[in-house]
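Notes from the 1:1 (GR / supervisor)

We went over the backlog. Supervisor wanted to see one worked example end to end before approving the batch request, so GR pasted a single chain during the call. The sequence is below; no edits were made to it. Supervisor asked that the structure be written out right there so they could see what the output format looks like.
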Amino acid sequence: MANPMGRLLETLGIGAEEIAYNPAVIVQKNVNKIADELNIIAVRVESLNSNWLNPKLYDPHIMFFTLQNDRLVPIPETPVFRQYEDPWATWLVGKDTEPQLLFGGVKIYRSGNEPIVTTQLFLSPSVQELNPDRPFAEIREMKDVRFAQLPNGQLAVFTRPITGNAYPGRIGFKIINDIEEIRNSETVRNIKLLKFDLNSFCKIGTNEAFFVKETGFLHVFGHIAFVDGDRF
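Structure output shown during the call:
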């Protein structure tokens, strides 16, 4: 009987004092004609003593791996997203019917000693062509932002504001016509909150969203955290 808890994978190409976690799978076709299809795994890599409250110790980065003989192996000629954490990705079909990868990660900016969480968005034909220095858009003071394309080409957007009525974190939802709309910060900030039967001491966010043709429904995976004393 298979182990329902899964197993830890050896990760090559990282330091002895680093860990690899928070993976996101990207199924990419025709990668430089190496294979018809390649499962790429975007992973957050970080030192064991990394701490986002301490800029001198904080060193997360996103790397891209593939699975070979039960080991995660770095993919050559793929970018490294320095100072980024928590990768995610989805494929979009543009007006020219060509697929584009919408890739996202979380970056921490500093305003004095105050950290500012920011979601960075990138558009590219492939993982190899992603440019960490050229984000398509950014969403300040927010993480756990996710997208899913609908059959009519529109995009379902899930956000997680954490201030005002949304504190300590709720899921916002809106359908937009084009990814360009996300560049307008007001589009994101004015998204209505979904209602959940949760008390005010819970925070909730979206991990992944996708449309399933067979069911005709938008499927969403999320997470919930509860307050334990003064900590989540």
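Supervisor's comment: The chain has two domains: 9-141, 144-232.
Batch request approved.
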